[in-house]
Amino acid sequence: xxxxxxxxxxxxxxxxxxxxxxxxxxxxxxxxxxxxxxxxxxxxxxxxxxxxxxxxxxxxxxxxxxxxxxxxxxxxxxxxxxxxxxxxxxxxxxxxxxxxxxxxxxxxxxxxxxxxxxxxxxxxxxxxxxxxxxxxxxxxxxxxxxxxxxxxxxxxxxxxxxxxxxxxxxxxxxxxxxxxxxxxxxxxxxxxxxxxxxxxxxxxxxxx
Length: 208
What we know:
This protein is about 70% helix and about 0% strand. The chain is mainly alpha-helical. Helix 2 packs across helix 3, helix 4 runs parallel beside helix 8 and helix 7 packs across helix 9. The longest helix has 29 residues.
């Protein structure tokens, strides 16, 4: 359960970008400590020494704040997956490293429960920051490839990783238990499949 933060000292005047950045850092901390329900305008405001109204001004709503946080987390994945195509070609351990980074973001990083919270709230119109971040992730990986088929393969790979990591974070533990599977069973499966998506000629095109 989220614990009330200690009172903050009065801070200097901050720019809009600084406020958004501080708010997203605080929101991620709240998410890890208390789950998606703790990521509210009031709680974030308390964390960064601002009023509920001031935080509202920068994000528009609690849903806007949560979506901005989700987008920030996906952008962090873009950084974490730097040079992923090259690594997959040269490092036998790279597929598992990639799978762990993506799955950790959704599980330990809290992106899975947060995504479920956003979708189940019905506020899908607020997902534009997530959409932009996912597109940036795809573009970053496509930029590491030189063949014409890379965009389609990368989109398929990101779809596979995101959906499986999300599902594993939200409902993976009980399903694995039902099937007598190891805790890392889904990560291992994705690690074995991933090179087929990102290396040219590894996976046949989808049927038209």
